[in-house]
From TrEMBL:
It comes from Rickenella mellea. PANTHER family: 39S RIBOSOMAL PROTEIN L46, MITOCHONDRIAL PRECURSOR-RELATED, LARGE RIBOSOMAL SUBUNIT PROTEIN ML46. The lineage of its organism: Eukaryota, Fungi, Dikarya, Basidiomycota, Agaricomycotina. This is Large ribosomal subunit protein mL46. One of its GO terms (molecular function) is structural constituent of ribosome. Its main location: mitochondrion. Keywords: Mitochondrion, Ribonucleoprotein, Ribosomal protein, Transit peptide. It holds the Pfam family MRP-L46. GO terms for cellular component: mitochondrial inner membrane; mitochondrial large ribosomal subunit. It is found in: Mitochondrion. Coiled coil: none annotated. Residues 38-139 form the Large ribosomal subunit protein mL46 N-terminal domain. Belongs to the mitochondrion-specific ribosomal protein mL46 family.
Length: 277
């Protein structure tokens, strides 16, 4: 082979190699720009603090069972356990009258003479435990920031981010998972960074309960085309949100209220991870 032919062959081989490297670099750049950023989010829940109100049928059934129980039970020998005319005897009789009225209706047992007791009616009323109100002041004022509202329902924390965010109202999200950091650790860090450290919270488990994938606006200056948000479930036990500077507002909402507050696209992505009640 002549030297000129050898030089041409080697030059063609070099061009081919350079072209392949440039092609690979182009594909690598395209793959980088087309990827999604992996982030963590938190669905922070306040569990119900009241039992649900019974239906009319359930209430009638419980009343019927209570009347049967009171009618068939053996009388309690209070003369054996309490001294005649003592405070404990008076308290017991007052509680018995309350139970009888609850079982058989108002007016039952009102003719019973209990003049021997030194326990006054005010003392007996004070001993009665008052149930927690189902409609609180926060419900009447529509205070969406209060954790006392909607006692029988699950409440979820929604925050309002920066005006440049794609979704105005959303769950706490956007924490980039750092190297050697687990999802639940990133979720806990996210709560502190966005909602402050004045809450006693617990991240439930180490597996996400949902995934939300979305793209950034076309004019956004980012190294990625969008985000993949892995939502972790959390519970709040005490405290309240103390939003940081980049959080404009927050609210504790039920599932139905969340649908009215968030973007439709966002709602379709998160509705299945929320409790219906």
């Amino acid at each position: 082979m002549s030297s000129s032919v050898f030089r041409k062959t080697r030059w063609a081989s070099a061009r081919s190699c350079f072209s392949d490297q440039r092609c690979l670099a182009t594909h690598a750049t395209e793959a980088k720009t087309q990827s999604h950023l992996l982030t963590a989010g938190v669905v922070l829940n306040r569990a119900p603090i009241l039992t649900t109100a019974p239906t009319p049928f359930e209430r009638a059934f419980y009343d019927y069972q209570r009347r049967i129980y009171r009618a068939l039970q053996n009388p309690f020998p209070d003369y054996f356990y309490f001294k005649d005319g003592s405070v404990l005897e008076g308290r017991f009789k007052a509680e018995e009258r309350a139970r009888e009225k609850e079982a058989f209706g108002k007016g039952f047992g009102e003719a019973v003479d209990d003049s021997t007791s030194i326990l006054t009616d005010d003392d007996a009323e004070r001993e009665q435990e008052q149930p927690k109100l189902r409609v609180t002041k926060a419900d009447k004022l529509k205070d969406y920031k209060s954790l006392d509202r909607r006692g029988p329902r699950n409440l979820y924390l929604l925050i309002k981010g920066k005006p440049t965010d794609k979704y105005a109202w959303r769950f706490p999200q956007g924490a980039t998972v750092r190297k050697d950091e687990l999802l639940h650790e990133a979720a806990q860090r996210l709560l502190h960074e966005q909602c402050g450290d004045a809450m006693n919270t617990w991240i439930v488990g180490r597996r996400p309960i949902g995934l939300l994938e979305f793209n950034y606006p076309t004019n956004a200056e980012n190294d990625h085309v969008g985000e993949k948000v892995f939502f972790m479930k959390g519970h709040i036990f005490a405290g309240q949100v103390k939003p940081k500077d980049d959080i404009a507002d927050f609210a504790w909402l039920t599932k139905e209220e969340i649908e009215q507050w968030v973007d439709k696209e966002y709602w379709n992505g998160v509705k299945d991870i929320l409790s219906d009640w």
